[in-house]
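not sure who needs this but someone in the group chat was asking about IstB-like ATP binding protein from Aneurinibacillus thermoaerophilus so here u go. i didnt clean anything up, its just raw.
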Amino acid sequence: MGYMHLEHGSAHYLFQVISRRYERGSIIMTSNKSFGEWGEVLGDPVIATAMLDRLLHHSRIFNMKGESYRLREKKAASRKQKGS
């Protein structure tokens, strides 16, 4: 969630999926945006609030910070090439 902005209709469909799944089973979702930025990503702060309300109700949040593993691998490969 957050890589690309969703069109208004897409945000509604995603909300419907989450609403129907709410309290029936697990949902795993990843995002590179803070919760405060979801309204912008979804194009509708009301939908974002309702969606987050359902997602966060029984959730466990894992906030991971740090360098991207892809960038870390690229830097390591670059160092190996320079050392060769």
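also DSSP finds four helices and no strands in the chain. if thats useful
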